[in-house]
Write a structure and sequence with these properties.
Two copies of one chain form a homodimer.
Chain A (H helix, E strand, L loop, with lengths): L2 H15 L1 E3 H8 L3 H13 L3 E4 L2 E4 H7 L3 H16 L7 E4 L3 H9 L7 E4 L2 H8 L5 E4 L3 E3 L4 E3 L1 H8 L3 E7 L2 E3 L2 E4 L2 H13 E7 L11 E4 L6 E3 L10 H5 L3 E2 L1
Parallel strand pairs in A: 4-5, 4-9, 5-6, 9-12, 12-14, 14-15
Antiparallel strand pairs in A: 1-3, 2-3, 7-8, 10-11, 11-13
Helix pairs in contact in A: 2-3, 5-6, 6-7, 8-9
Chain A binds a DNA duplex (30 and 30 nucleotides) through helix 3.
DNA sequence: ATATTTTTTGCAAGAAATTGCACAATGATG
DNA sequence: CATCATTGTGCAATTTCTTGCAAAAAATAT
């Protein structure tokens, strides 16, 4: 096998699988690993692949490793603006914290008149910047990790509210429902869902079909899911089947 | 699985869920926790994540508040450090908001163990950064102008506390006492003074011998005044005569 | 066609990297 | 302060990498 041929083969494999091991290639085309290594080094010098210890990666892989905050911020802004469209004047709205919710707070139209309840310090801070909306902080002990109020006092305060909407940023959702990994946070989120007439989930699409260890609620308690994707996307099928609205 | 791949996976998980546990990752991708820990350390060295005991946090998640330059920051830092000297372990402390108080929050020694009650969003946020102190937010409606919780709920919550110390930033003080110009804020501050055994006033010297239109309390309810000036300064004579300690 | 040069390949040995384990130190928590 | 989990460190086993070198193959010259 000619060297050029071999390198073309390697490139094709990397394009196909996004990654390759030196040892695998050596077995597949019966040359020593030294040769493979030399090939990979040459291809890497030509900027065609990314060489790593033990093999190589496709260049497109690099983009995901060099995480772009911009892309994510864009997604979240899309989600936030969809969420804003659900909010009407004089609503009582319960919200969690999270970057997506904060983004939403920034996008609220300045003539909006509504009352927001939250236990999240950053969210409350953001709402407080708004000229017209009323902010009620559901105070109690502040959880260090999540910067939200947790504990019985907060929960019983939430239970005493009859909200029109609960707008909730989440960590993971799949067919079994919403899950999270912080017990105290879960208690608060459960209470919020109970206290609101409708529950709206904000989630970037990457969190769809992932799960964590503790359950907040099943899909039957959710009314709407908002992601940055088009609602017609097939990934939403299982959720639509449960009667959930996708925005 | 290649090391680079694994680290990319870890980054993605952290981006997705904002936080992860070393043990979870170890289970998910079947490598020892040692390896995970080494990965997390490397990613933390690259400033891509924040390593914490037991796992890691997303970088974007935590740094949400921007620190702005404050007027007379130097003076306020002097005041703050004097105030810190009054705080002992296991105290229950009520505080208001205000830049001086925030400055104090930043100067709290990291081994301090105490419980702080506050109705101020920026102050609560600052306390929440501290490793050991417990933060209780006295939630209720958030006043836009002052970013603190006001209203009956907050006040009755304060009334239910027996605090060792009330550390209060103020707007104006003279021989007649402390004054302010926001009616809702005054209600909260009055309640705080009532609920604490001792009241400490933080004030830059500019505010001495000024007054505003609404009275919070007379000098007899104040135990200590802290300014950036030396306590021997003659300007304090009228306050010393009332039995107030000057720091 | 044969010799010479150049390129490529495989091999060996030492260096470096990766991973898992044991153990002591440190940190969390009640 | 006592217990338990997490962490850092040193170590060993394994794998991968680098380097130098010589044989093999290919290209080129004579």
């Amino acid at each position: 096998m000619l060297k050029t041929e071999r390198q073309a083969y390697i490139l094709r494999q990397i394009d196909l699988h996004n990654r390759i091991l030196s040892s695998d290639l050596s077995n597949e085309i019966n040359v020593s690993e030294d040769t493979i290594r030399r090939d990979l080094n040459e291809l890497a010098d030509m900027d065609k692949i990314i060489k790593v210890h033990g093999g190589a990666l496709s260049k497109s892989f690099h983009s995901s490793f060099l995480k772009s905050d911009v892309y994510k911020a864009d997604s979240k802004r899309v989600i936030a603006s969809k969420a804003v469209s659900l909010i009407r004047n004089n609503m009582f709205i319960l919200t969690t914290g999270g970057t997506t919710v904060i983004e939403m707070a920034r996008l609220l139209p300045s003539d909006l008149n509504a009352t927001f309840f939250t236990g999240s310090i950053p969210a409350a801070h953001e709402y407080a910047q708004h000229p017209n909306i009323e902010v009620i902080f559901l105070g109690d002990k502040i959880s260090k990790s999540s910067q939200i109020a947790v504990g019985g006092e907060a929960i019983s305060k939430i239970a005493g509210i009859k909200a029109d909407l609960c707008i909730m940023g989440i960590n993971a959702i799949d067919e079994t429902g919403i899950t999270d990994n912080d017990w105290e946070v879960i208690q608060v989120k459960k209470a919020m869902i109970q206290a609101a007439e409708k529950t709206v989930i904000l989630s970037i699409s990457e969190k769809l079909n992932t799960h964590q260890r503790l359950t907040i609620c099943g899909l039957d308690e959710i009314d709407t899911i908002i992601t940055e994707l088009d609602p017609s996307n097939p990934v939403f099928e299982p959720y639509k089947k449960e009667g959930i609205t996708i925005l």
